[in-house]
Design a protein that fits this description.
Number of helices: 14
CATH topology of the largest domain: Aspartate Aminotransferase, domain 2
Strand order of the largest sheet: 4-12-11-10-7-5-6
Strand content: 15-25%
Bound molecules: pyridoxal-5'-phosphate
Structural class: alpha/beta
Order of helices and strands: HEEEHHHEHEHEHEEEHEHEEHHHEEHEEH
Number of strands: 16
Radius of gyration: 22 Å
Distance between the termini: 31 Å
CATH architecture of the largest domain: 3-Layer(aba) Sandwich
CATH superfamily of the largest domain: Type I PLP-dependent aspartate aminotransferase-like (Major domain)
Number of domains: 2
Shape: globular
Helix content: 25-40%
CATH class of the largest domain: Alpha Beta
């Protein structure tokens, strides 16, 4: 084991980790392209882009150069009363890229906080319009919107990540995604019944990520948007996972021609290099905050908001979406995932295969030994983190065809081994 790992491990607390049993992480010495280089010399192909961020692969020289230049001139200043070019250029570019009049950008440093800001915007929007009673939020089954208290209250209570805090969270309203006629009537009735108390509906458009890679179609998303407009409830699109090409469009909302009132972005915003998030509001939302009343202003301001290094990285990342063929790469990945994961459908212990853009998910049934699956993937030289009952691939968009085949072949092999164990009655 590396010296620094042995010496530091007694002092580190790892995420979502039972420290008594599975606390030794792999020591990483470096990264490059699609690869994670381990301290012991092994190399893993990253099939999940470091929690869905590294869309251009690791160490892209264009982003590195931009951050290096920024570091030499202006690493950070506070963002109240002071402005800098990387943030203002990024805000202008995001506004131009996003659909409709989503044009007013509030920067933060993490996805959860971007959602918190969206909630504040929505609740205060109604208060500023004289409807202070509209404070509650509707979210959907299987949703995941973050790890902070207000966002935990918007995560599926049965997915298990946050249930033990139930008593300490605000009480919000869970709905079913309106996928068919009867669910549409139910959703419509829910909004009608509660409209006077509802500030917003929040949705992960087209793909619900951490809640299990559940997918819905553009018509369902369009119906949600239409119902929100009809019942005067704001629509918040959480595109922290889907944004920047992952679903096949630059933003998933575009596929349904939906312009949400507020959109949350993070994860791939800096191409997986530095922490940054953005909450972007439409013009009418912003205008509700314009007033001579000082309490009508948005009361939020993280210390490191709009960090210039992170904004420089994000600007460079946006360059790569035009300078390199990202969306074409996503389309090719989608087709390849479809072909190469299809055989998993036939395996014992597999409930289904879902593909959307550069996301391929295999849903399992029965008991799932996550630890065993994860170890087996590492033995095969690939980095995947299946969770719940889902083994999924979300590779960097620059992945080569052969590398993606290595990933899909490993998934088929490992799930094939599991199917064999199930058939032999040797567990899962
Ligand atoms: C990851 C994620 C978040 C939370 O982002 P953090 O940066 O981890 O706080 C929120 N919503 C969605 C859809 C996500 O995928």
């Amino acid at each position: 084991m590396s010296d620094w790992l042995t010496a530091g491990l007694p002092h580190i607390w790892l995420p979502y980790t039972q420290m008594a049993t599975d606390a030794t992480p792999l020591a990483v010495a470096g990264t490059g392209g699609t690869r994670i280089r381990l301290a012991d010399g092994r190399e893993l192909i990253d099939g999940i882009s470091s929690w869905w961020t590294a869309c251009h692969g690791y160490n892209h020289p264009h982003i590195r150069d931009a951050v290096e230049r920024q570091l030499a001139t202006l690493p950070h200043v506070m963002f109240a009363g002071l402005a800098h070019e990387p943030a203002l250029r990024l805000a202008q570019r995001l506004a131009a890229l996003l659909p409709g009049d989503l044009e007013r950008v509030f920067f933060t440093e993490s996805g959860s906080v971007a959602v918190e800001v969206a909630l504040k915007m929505a609740i205060q929007y109604w208060r500023n319009l004289g409807q202070a009673g509209k404070q509650r939020i509707v979210y959907f089954r299987h949703a995941y919107h973050g790890d902070t208290f207000a966002t935990m209250a918007l995560c599926d209570p049965e997915e298990g990540m946050h249930t033990l805090f139930a008593g300490s969270m605000p009480d919000q309203i869970m709905a079913e995604l309106p996928r068919d006629e009867s669910l549409r009537r139910a959703f419509d009735l829910l909004l009608e019944t509660h409209a006077g108390r509802l500030a917003a509906v929040i949705i992960e458009p087209l793909v619900q990520g951490a809640g299990g890679m559940k997918m819905h179609d553009a018509q369902t998303l369009a119906f949600v948007a239409e119902a929100c407009a009809r019942h005067k409830v704001l629509l918040i699109a959480d595109e922290i996972m889907t944004g920047f090409g992952r679903s096949g469009h630059m933003f998933a909302c575009e596929e349904a021609d939906v312009v949400p009132d507020i959109i949350c972005l993070s994860k791939a915003l800096t191409g997986g290099t530095l922490p940054l998030a953005a909450t972007v509001a439409r013009r009418h939302v912003f205008e509700a905050f314009l007033s001579t009343d000082p309490t009508a202003a948005l009361m939020h301001g993280p210390t490191y908001m709009a960090n210039p290094l992170a904004c420089a990285a994000a600007n460079a990342s946006l360059d790569l979406f035009t300078g390199e063929p990202r969306l074409a790469q996503v389309a090719a990945i989608e087709a390849q995932l479809g072909r190469e994961l299809a055989p998993c459908r036939e395996l014992a212990g597999v409930a289904g295969v879902r593909i959307k853009g550069a996301i391929g998910a295999v849903e399992l049934n029965g008991d799932v030994d996550l630890g065993a699956l994860r170890r087996r993937f590492i033995e095969l030289g690939i980095w995947l983190r299946p969770f719940g009952k889902v083994v999924y691939l979300m590779p960097p968009f620059i992945i080569a065809t052969e590398e993606l085949t290595t990933l899909t072949a490993a998934v088929c092999q490992v799930l094939g081994e599991r199917a064999q164990r199930i058939r032999d009655g040797r567990g899962t």
